[in-house]
Amino acid sequence: MTVMKKKLNKTTKSNLITYAMVVIVYIIVQLLVSGGAVSSLMKGLLVPLCVYSILAVSLNLTVGILGELSLGHAGFMCIGAFTSATFSKLTNGVIQPAGFRFFLAILVGAVFAGIFGLLIGIPVLRLKGDYLAIVTLAFGEIIKNIVNVIYLGRDSHGIHFSIKDAASLGMDADGEMIIKGPQGITGTPTDSTFTIGIVLILVTLFIVLNLVHSRSGRAIMAIRDNRIAAESVGINITKYKLMAFSISAALAGVAGVLYAHNLSTLTALPKNFGYNMSIMILVFVVLGGIGNIRGSIIAAVLLTMLPELLRGLNDFRMLIYAIVLIATMIITNNEKIMNTIRRFLPKKQAQPVKEETK
Amino acid sequence: MAMLEVKNLGISFGGLRAVDGLDMTIEKGELYGLIGPNGAGKTTAFNMLTGVYKPTDGVIKLDGEDITGKSTIEINKAGIARTFQNIRLFSELFVLDNVKVGLHNHYRYSTIAGILRLPAYRKAEKEMDEKAMELLKVFNLQDEWDYKASNLPYGKQRKLEIARALATEPKLLLLDEPAAGMNPNETGELMDTIQFVCKNFDMTVLLIEHDMKLVSGICQKLTVLNFGQVLAQGKTSDVLNDPKVIKAYLGE
To answer: Where is the ABC transporter domain (chain B) (predicted)?
Structure first.
């Protein structure tokens, strides 16, 4: 049927544009780096950019596609970071080559974050709207605080675990600390590179975009649009809500793995795994357009770069950052201004399934 | 055997007896009407039939199978599909995808196959597209397949809801005020569509309606509810000429 082909082309084209965008940015950055045009400061930002992009896309699955507000996304990232860093510390030098070990670490981070997403999702997804937001916020903080009291060590007798202090591990003199409570993990192999980050962004995009256009994705969006009607056509609400939530958590875990293996020291601070981070990710999603996957990436990249680009302005940079945020929110939510802007843009291409909030 | 058999169905909300002692038998292929004044308990009865409310007492049998007190999902799988008084579409999805959601339980492939675009995905999606398009054609919606459901005009949204319900391949179709808010032309068209569905899909239909032109035009049998109780029951022409019904509902 020609009609079907048209539809297929429309969504495929839109997806391809998103993939192409990521690949083109990668090529440009690589050219700039090899040409020596990128400052070391900006080079240090490349992996975090990938981390934030993955986080934004994965949160968009919960907020935009499933339509539930979650403020605990950094918690899942934290789980992915710590489980994978522990795995890497334990197997460093044991599993060869290092690339394969890092691949396994990514799987470990994703699986653990996904499992926690499922476990937390079972009780909290019974709630809606503001209540769900508050409970997920709390769970995010709980995860961060629990990680801060874990002590883990290894000696010739095996692995020791405590939630009191390092001394109560009772390790031999040759023992090696792996997680040192609030001091976290030190000496994680720094495997993350910009190339791996881009590959992981592409994988995340592949999973989310293909999920949205499959049978399960339709069920998830049907629940978002009208729960009662979805039930009336025989869709298992709990199953699909949990599916979306745990896939979203697993992808946040992947971002955590990338984050943990970018620095040799990993600590759970309010700055990196606290609610500030969760809200930061939500800002990316809202600014990029709720349900708009491509927009999430663009917003994550721009908002991460902006404070650095404005560094020359010193004291004023956070002020400008705030003004840009507020102005974007006002402009994108105002139909009149948007229509004026659209007039200057080329004709809109295929829309993602959902463009804006209700 | 009767398609739907309801015996002594009743529900109480605290002290309020919303439906009381409802008996109703619908034969296969019948077009059956449920009418009555506002607040008579018609939609409550629908909600019990579809598992939204659990009846306080009584038995519901669909095609001989006891479905009393089952969940909405189980009842849909058993073969009852419905539309809603206030339209409930998946407003942000394409018209076509609304129908495909209805096909959800009939064309299966795993989530993994969907993400990896395995052959199972391509095959099932192709069949779903074709089947959904076929259904849209019945309701003359095929040209609007790529509209967002919320962008359809009102009358077409009602039709899309029926198409989505039919996609679940029900034995019994429940329509809750299908003609609400329609002009006489649209109502006339809707009457033809309902009769067409009844005939071509071999469907049994139970509908709630206030539009007497539609009710007298297509329903073969009627049950009139008043204050939760059955006021009259039987052939449409007999019921509509019943003095009790005229007094309580139609007006003299």
So the answer is: 4-252
Strand partners, B234: B222
Q: Which amino acid is at A125?
A: L
**Residue A41: its pLDDT value, please?**
81
CB A193 within 8 A of CB A186: no
Closest Cβ opposite residue B91 in set A218, A225, A234:
A225
Q: Which of residues 17-56 of A touch B (CB under 8 A)?
A: none
ipTM: 0.91
Using 50, 70 and 90 to split pLDDT, how confident is the model at A5?
Answer: low
Instruction: Determine, yes or no, domain membership for B20.
Output: yes
Asked whether residue B206 is domain-assigned, the answer is: yes
In single-letter form, the type of residue at position A80 comes to: G
- DSSP β-ladder status, B16-26 and A265-266: unpaired
Nearest residue of A to residue B78, measured between CA atoms = A234
Longest Cα–Cα distance in chain A: 73
Q: Are A72 and A138 in contact (CB under 8 A)?
A: yes
Over the Cα atoms of chain B, what is R_g? 19
Cβ-contact B175, B161 below 8 angstroms: no
The CA-to-CA distance between both ends of chain B, in Å, stands at 38
Cα dist from B208 to A33, A176, B34, B84, B211, whole Å? 69, 74, 5, 10, 9
Token couple for A90: 């334990």
B49 domain-assigned: yes
In a domain, B36, yes or no: yes
Q: How far apart are CA A59 and CA A128, in angstroms?
A: 16
Mean pLDDT in residue range A319-328: 81
Compute the distance between CA of residue A338 and CA of residue A351 in angstroms, rounded to an integer.
Answer: 15
Sign of CA dihedral B45, B46, B47, B49: positive
Q: Note down the domain range covering B214.
A: 4-79+170-250
Question: Is residue A12 within 8 angstroms of chain B, CB to CB?
Answer: no
Kindly state whether B105 is in contact with chain A, defined as any CB-CB distance less than 8 angstroms. yes
Nearest to B170 by CA among B141, B206, B136: B206
pTM for the model: 0.88
Beta bridge partner(s), residue B60: B6
| CATH number of the domain that residue B210 is part of | 3.40.50.300
CA nearest to B112 within chain A: A211
- Measure the CA–CA gap between B155 and B188, rounded to whole angstroms: 12
Q: Where are the alpha helices (DSSP H) in A187-333?
A: 194-212, 215-225, 227-232, 237-260, 270-273, 275-288, 293-309, 317-332
Q: Which residues pair with B5 in a beta bridge?
A: B25, B61
Out of A3, A225, A231, name the one closest to residue B73 (CB). Answer: A231
Report the SS3 class of residue A234.
Answer: coil
What Cα–Cα distance (Å) separates residue B69 from each residue in A58, B47, B57, B119, B208?
38, 11, 10, 39, 21
E-only strand ranges, A168-269 = 176-180, 185-186, 265-266
Nearest to B104 among A210, A215, A243 (CB): A215
Residues 32-51 of B with CB under 8 A from A: 50
Best of B77, B115, B123 to disrupt the A interface by mutation (most A CBs within 10 Å)? Answer: B115
> Could you give the number of structural domains in chain B?
1
Average the pLDDT over each of A8-12, A136-140, B85-89, B167-171 and give the range with the smallest value. A8-12
